[in-house]
Specification:
Helix content: 25-40%
Distance between the termini: 80 Å
Radius of gyration: 30 Å
Structural class: alpha+beta
Number of helices: 15
Strand content: 15-25%
Strand order of the largest sheet: 2-6-7-10-1-11-12-13-14
Length: 488
């Protein structure tokens, strides 16, 4: 017997995701209007994206290139022939009364995505059913002046790809990992900025519940237009729990579209869920079939950058860096490239990683900028670290030099010359070191007396005093030797 406390444990969630990704083009899918975000309402419109009579669409070639690159990065087969179709439905922000999309002959099919998680001892790989091109609708603005609604058609006609997964996802954590992994790949390939807050990446969740051990799919609902990974995860958990309660009570799940309220963390029905025949798909009469050559597709495949998973693997084998550090260093393509420049220039990848994840990250966090956008160039930071690697400056001096080079005055300075002018080059001659030791012994007589009397743990304290006095320029290794000789 199923009790309320175990109701969700008795069921398994089955999830498929539809991800709508705005392509990184300057102009729209079928006209020359700009796709820039944040412009005045309805400023970027023309007869084509307004759906005025007699206006004809012309396919954006750059959108095709980006869509193909995205498909190939997801291990899909890009087809030499695909067909645009009209998806007919009424909505206030759809001026033509239909959306140009693709239906039974999409751009690409049969991909897969390793999401980096394990399930029952095996890596979770989500199959991708299809990637197809389409145009976006406009935007409805509700509660305008508290009573009115308005339509902004700037987004109407913006080029999208819709990435449809198989129902292979079994938890909210897997769904979150899928979206994160997909988002990172799209950013690496530079086909989209994937900014969820601006709507460049939106997720529809198709979810159903079935008794554990069952193989037949349950009736699904679709939670529309989620614009955060947290929203994806939380909406799944709440909708799954709702479906489990309905089924446990002997009820049935209605196939319907749901809306997620992130502020209230509530899901409410919007309308009954349409099936494909409801949209009355038919080939777009104003656009010919899209034909791509085998050679063109191969060129796009060869042009793909190293993808995140491959780069993480290479970093581990080539540099011997811990996996947790690699995750940060490969978070973005720009960050990975910056690290590799620092590693190559410094000649010490592990030390470069420690600098990036230590001082550089702390500086970026303090100023509120992205790590990969820090104003100190990768070449300059690599040169600074090289001085430490070569033993020309101490770590203490290197950190002082780093703080100097963060300033606008010194960010383009040569690190060696700056270290020379600031007196930060390592001092190793015994005469200078002995002088600093004598001064410290005189300034801290009690600590010095206890150290010379046998309290060896105070050696680090005295060395710290010398390092501060020398502004980090004293050679710590030789300093240790000289202090030890004093005690002997």
């Amino acid at each position: 017997m199923i009790t309320p406390a175990t109701v969700t444990d008795a069921y398994e969630m089955v999830i498929g995701l539809e991800v709508h990704c705005q392509l990184k083009t300057i102009t729209k899918a079928f006209c020359g209007c700009r796709t820039s975000f944040g412009d005045a309402p309805n400023a970027n419109t023309c007869p084509v994206c307004l759906g005025l009579p007699g206006a004809l669409p012309v396919l954006n070639a750059h959108a095709v290139e980006l869509a193909a690159s995205a498909s190939l990065a997801l291990d899909c087969t890009v087809h030499e022939k695909s067909i645009f179709a009209r998806k007919n439905y009424f909505y206030p922000d759809l001026p033509k009364g239909y959306q140009i999309s693709q239906f039974d002959q999409p751009l690409a099919t049969a991909g897969q995505l390793d999401i980096g998680l394990m399930r029952n001892g095996e890596r979770v790989v989500i199959r991708i059913t299809r990637v197809h091109m389409e145009e976006d609708a406009g935007k409805s603005v509700h509660d305008r002046f508290k009573t009115d609604s308005a339509i902004d058609l700037n987004r109407s006609g913006t080029p999208l790809v819709e990435i449809v997964s198989e129902p292979d996802i079994r938890s909210s954590a897997e769904a979150g990992a899928y979206v994160r992994t997909l988002k990172q790949i799209l950013e690496y390939v530079d086909v989209s900025d994937a900014n969820m807050e601006e709507g460049s990446l939106r997720v529809d969740v198709n979810i159903s519940a079935r008794l554990r051990g069952a193989t037949e799919l349950g009736t699904r609902t679709e939670v529309k237009n989620l614009n955060s990974i947290t929203g994806v995860e939380r909406s799944i958990e709440i909708e799954f729990a709702r479906q489990c309660r309905v089924l446990a009570a002997g009820g049935t799940i209605m196939q319907q579209t749901m809306l997620w309220d992130g502020h209230k963390e509530e899901i409410r029905p919007a309308r009954s869920k349409e099936a494909s025949h409801d949209y009355r798909y038919f080939p777009e009469p104003d656009l010919p079939p899209l034909h791509l050559t085998t050679a063109w597709i191969a060129t796009k495949r060869d042009a793909l950058p190293e993808l995140p998973q491959a780069r993480r693997h290479r970093f581990g084998t080539q540099y011997g860096i811990p996996a947790v550090d690699i995750e940060v260093l490969t978070a973005t393509r720009a960050m990975a490239a910056r690290f590799e420049t620092i590693a190559a220039t410094s000649g010490d990848a592990r030390r470069a990683a420690n600098w990036v994840l230590g001082p550089l990250q702390a500086s970026a966090n303090a100023t509120g900028i992205a790590l990969e956008e820090h104003p100190l160039s990768a070449e300059r930071l690599g040169q600074l670290i090289r001085l430490e690697v070569d033993g020309k400056i101490s770590n203490t001096a290197a950190r002082q030099l780093f703080m100097m080079m963060e300033t606008a005055e010194h960010k383009n300075a040569d690190p060696l010359r700056l270290a020379e002018s600031a007196g930060l080059l390592k001092v190793s001659d015994d005469s200078s070191l002995q002088t600093w030791i004598d001064e410290i012994i005189a300034e801290f007589p009690q600590e010095a007396s206890r150290y010379l009397g046998g309290e060896t743990k105070l050696q680090g304290v005295l060395i710290g005093h010398v390092m501060r006095k020398s502004k980090g320029s004293a050679d710590p290794k030789r300093l240790n030797q000289l202090l030890s000789a004093r005690r002997a």
